[in-house]
């Protein structure tokens, strides 16, 4: 259930992330983007394409904490994103590439998957935590980070 309030918080989180990306770009030229994705979401995701910056590591570290902590993701998707009795794997090379895109992962984390145990905002995490955990899942499922 979205209210105008949570949407604007979400937007604010994305804008903050965008600002961080822009700031990082001024320090070092960005690497080529490995994949093209829709406009707004992509700017939040590819923080992890700007490899080796402090902000990237921070996002990944925070996202890992959310996954294995307040987001409760580990309880259903497993401690290594391998899946479990109630939930599909979030990593592994048998997955459809579209299911590992940053935009898709963030969308599912935000809105959930209707009529399944995958509810929106698992664990009541904040919009910022959703972006962090989506970065973490995206990075692991695309072989850019270990679980
Ligand atoms: C209560 C169990 C449960 C928890 C907790 C949970 N999920 Fe899920 N998740 C599911 C189920 C079940 C599905 C499959 C939904 C469907 O069939 O559409 C799913 C689907 C997904 C998908 C889509 C996978 C695909 O291949 O389509 C993503 C991404 C995802 N979850 C991420 C997360 C993240 C990140 C968290 C933590 C913030 C989380 N989930 C917490 C049960 C859970």
Topology of helices and strands:
Layout: H1 4-27, H2 39-44, H3 54-68, H4 73-77, H5 102-111, H6 127-141
Bound molecules: heme C.
What does this structure look like?
The chain is mostly helical and 147 residues long. The chain has a domain at 56-141: Cytochrome Bc1 Complex, Chain D, domain 2. Helix content is 51%, strand content 0%. It is built from six helices and no strands. It has helices at 4-27, 39-44, 54-68, 73-77, 102-111, 127-141. Helix 5 (102-111) packs across helix 6 (127-141). The chain is globular. Bound molecules: heme C.
Summarize the structure.
The chain contains six helices and no strands.
> In sequence order, what are the helices and strands, one letter per element?
HHHHHH
The backbone outline, from C-alpha atoms, is globular
Distance between the termini: 30 Å
Contiguous low-pLDDT stretches (5 residues minimum) are: 1-7, 9-26, 32-44
Named once each, the bound ligands are:
heme C
Major sheet, described briefly? none
CATH architecture call of the domain at 56-141:
Orthogonal Bundle
């Amino acid at each position: 259930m979205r209210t105008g309030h949570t949407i604007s918080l979400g937007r604010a989180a994305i804008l903050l992330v965008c600002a961080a990306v822009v700031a990082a770009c001024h320090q070092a030229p960005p690497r080529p983007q490995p994949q093209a994705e829709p406009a707004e979401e992509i700017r939040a995701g590819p923080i992890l394409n700007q490899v080796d910056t402090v902000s990237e590591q921070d996002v990944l570290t925070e996202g890992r904490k959310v996954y294995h902590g307040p987001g409760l993701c580990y309880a259903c998707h497993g401690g290594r994103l391998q899946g479990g009795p109630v939930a599909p794997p979030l990593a592994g090379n048998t997955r459809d590439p579209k299911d590992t895109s940053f935009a898709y992962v963030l969308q599912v984390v935000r809105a959930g998957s209707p009529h399944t145990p995958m509810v929106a905002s698992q664990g009541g995490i904040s919009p910022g935590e959703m972006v962090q955990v989506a970065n973490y899942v995206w990075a692991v499922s695309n072989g850019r980070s270990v679980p």
